[in-house]
Each structure stands twice: as C-alpha cells, then as structure tokens.
Amino acid sequence: MLSKSMVGKLNNQIDLESFSSNLYLQMSAWAGTKGLEGCAAFLRAQAKEELAHMHRLFKYVQETGSLPVVGSIEAPPTEFNSISDLFQQVLNHEKKITGKINELMDSAQQENDHSTVHFLQWYVSEQHEEEHSIQQVLDKIHNIGESGSGVYFIDRAIGGMLRKR
Ligand code: OFO
C-alpha cells in the first residue's frame, strides 16, 4: 500500500515519462525533415523506450491498489538549431529526469517504502545507461564535427549505435 503522497509523486513521474516520449518523437520528426534518418530512427527508439517507462510506472501504481492517473502534458518544442543542440537538449532532459528519480528514491527511503525503493532501482540503472549513451552521441558529434559532410557521417554513426543496442 502506497502513501497518498507517494502515489502523487509516482503519478507525476508517469507524466514526465510521457513528456519524454513525446519530446523524442517530436525530435525524430525534426531529424526526419533534415534527412537525418539515422538520428530519426535513434530518437524514435528512444521515444518507444520512454513510453515503456511510463507503462512500467502505471502498472506498478495499479498493482499496489492505487489509482494511476494520466495527467496533461505540455507540447514539446518543434525547432532545434543543429544536431548538437538537439542532443544537448536530450542530455539536459535526461539529467533532469535522473534528478526526479533521485528525489522519488529519497522520498521512498524516508517513508521506509521498501517496495518502491526496489521498484525504482531499475530506473536508477536505466538513467545511468541513458545518460552514458547520449554522452557518447555528443562525443561522436564533437569528434566528427558538423561542417560539410560531417552531418552525413554523424547521422550514420548515430544510426549505427541503434543497431548495436
Ligand atoms: Fe530516459 O527517462 Fe525514462 O526513465
């Protein structure tokens, strides 16, 4: 049985995961319009993963006998200045999500809610992996450089990262 305050916090996280999914889907659309098929596929896969994160939370709240609530979420931005700008925004967003997961974990620990602590462990590991993979993307962009045919090679490299997953 979850506390009322924990249900509220987990429901907020449900909305954040939905927002993440929409953000990456919208970003994939931007990449698609620039002919960056590798980046678009990478971001679409990312959007699907975020949706799965949302469903995982939804199921957990439901299984504890509480009511999962799907709230309203803001629309994501549609324009980005460059590939590096876009992926820097992804990294900033993931860092923000990591902060939220850490806050949730702190609350669960303070409440001695061991079930939620255990449930959140998965998200802690997932955030570590995601931040690492987006940092790798940014390193590739930086190493290849966005001038001239660099954009083409960056797109190929990011599409290649998707196949290795
Ligand atoms: Fe990448 O954020 Fe979900 O958890």
Brief summary:
With 165 residues, the protein is mainly α. Helices cover 79% and strands 0% of the residues.
The residue fraction in helices comes out at: over 70%
CATH-scheme architecture: Up-down Bundle
Order of helices and strands: HHHHH
Mean pLDDT: 97
**How many runs of DSSP E, i.e. beta strands?**
0
CATH class: Mainly Alpha
Structural class: mainly alpha
- In the predicted model, the low-confidence regions spanning at least 5 consecutive residues are none
N-to-C span? 36 Å
Structural key phrases:
Ferritin, binds hydroxy diiron-OXO moiety, 165 residues, mainly alpha
What does this structure look like?
The chain is mainly α and 165 residues long. The chain has a single domain, classed as Ferritin, core subunit, four-helix bundle (Ferritin), CATH 1.20.1260.10. It has five helices and no strands. The longest helix is centred in the last third of the chain and has 31 residues. It starts with a helix and ends with a helix. The site of hydroxy diiron-OXO moiety has 10 residues, from helix 1, helix 2, helix 3 and helix 4.
